[in-house]
Amino acid sequence: MAATIKNYTIPLRKRFQRAAPRRRGPRAVKAVKDYLRQHCKTDEVKVGAHLNDALWERGITNPPAKVTVAVVVEDGVAKAELEGFAYEEAKKIQQKEEPQSVKDKLASTIGAKQHKEEERPAAKEEQPAAQREQKSPTP
User: Fold this and answer.
1) Does the N terminus or the C terminus of the chain have fewer Cβ atoms within 10 A?
2) Sign of CA dihedral 45, 50, 52, 55
């Protein structure tokens, strides 16, 4: 199916005006997606990197009152980008699998070798049990 390109000026102020200040940014993003779902008649809407930056540029409490976007609709997917820019997918921040402890961070900056659990001596609980057996008197 052929791709169609449309330009929309999306009013955002009424959607986030009565929201709590810390909810205005996310509400503005939802307003853009809802508006484009309704006008482009698609189920999936993707927000481009430049449009995302424009929505979040002034922080979570002050999104813009309106934005002008260019939308490309292909195969039931609407890809929205700020007018004047080509669509570029927004980058998602990848989280580390396991957060490092302060000890591990310090060791990596210094360059020290990290000890593995296998190399550590036996646990303290096992040693006293062995000592108790040796010290216990026989009746």
Assistant:
1) C
2) negative
